[in-house]
Amino acid sequence: MGRLVVRPKIDIAFKKIFTENLELLRLMLIDILKLPKIDSIQLRPNEVTPANVDEKFCRLDVRVTVDGREIDIEIQLHNRDDFRARSLYYWALLYTHLPVGDDYEKLPQTIVINFVDFTLFGETNDFHSCFVPMERNRHTLLTNKQEMHFFELKKIPNIENANNDDVIYWLNFISAETEEQITKIENLPKQKYKNAVKEVKKLNINDDFKKNVVAREIQHREEMSALNAAKRVGREEGREEGLQQGLEKGKEEGREEGKLEAKKELVKKLLNRGRPIEEIAEDTGLTPEEIESIAKE
Fold this sequence. Notes:
Elements: H1 11-19, H2 22-32, E1 41-43, E2 47-48, E3 58-59, E4 62-66, E5 69-76, H3 83-95, E6 110-116, E7 128-131, E8 146-152, H4 166-175, H5 179-186, H6 191-203, H7 207-245, H8 247-272, H9 277-284, H10 288-295
Parallel strand pairs: 5-6, 6-8
Antiparallel strand pairs: 1-4, 2-3, 4-5, 7-8
Helix pairs in contact: 5-6, 7-8
């Protein structure tokens, strides 16, 4: 059996599978968050506009309100140095929307769920890490308003060793790469997994959607290639500058200059493909004004 073109962990596929099938999303969230039930689930706009114009705009993967909770679900295939900080920023944006005059206790429980296809916490073999605000020495929970979940797909047990754990079954579904793996999910006795696999199979016979997936993967590769090139250039120029002006200072200056040049090349490629300036700003960390300046070069 061959490799799937449309795989659930590709962001556009993940969004389509779960935002167009809210019952499937409801069942997955019950299992992943170990909730007794979900009575109400509502999709929310995934573009979050900051309160001030000079703050960073962001686009979430899947945003829902679940029985009063605000939940952001992110799927990330490649490790970026800022991923932990970016996840915290997304949490903060969702949490801080409070109408004037409302009591602070009305702030919702806000949860960020990250499915990552790389090792993020090398110090542990646990595939699930959950972070909450807690006193350092007494381990006393400050509030239940914040939860940040990280599911590392590279660490999950295979389906044969799941021990009837629905969390592991869902993670195997999300990380499935081949027809063989997806068939194992389909053969599980619970109907929800059969329904999930049905959606994947439908997308894999949709030629237009498959073209979009291939284009998305090419875009991801080029972005990661540009970022890796920036790191290499930064290290090399840092060594050269270090010989002249001091090793530490040279490394830092070379690294920043190399990153900027690589970002400029990446911005030009994305602009040529018609990517919106707001999306480019989110992906690169540059401001819309800086992107417009690069476009004029």
